[in-house]
Amino acid sequence: MRMLVPPVIRRREMDRKLVEFFYQQRPGSFRRAISDFCQYYAIKPPRIQWCEYIVWGKAAGKTFEDGRIHLVHPENWQRGRIYNTERMWVQTIYHELGHYLFWTDAERKAEVFTQRMVRGLRRATKTRRAATRRRAALARRRAGGRRRRRPAQTRASSRPRRSNRAAAR
Question: Residue 70 contacts by C-beta under 8 Å, 6 or more apart in sequence?
Answer without folding.
Answer: 48, 49, 50, 51, 54, 61, 62, 64
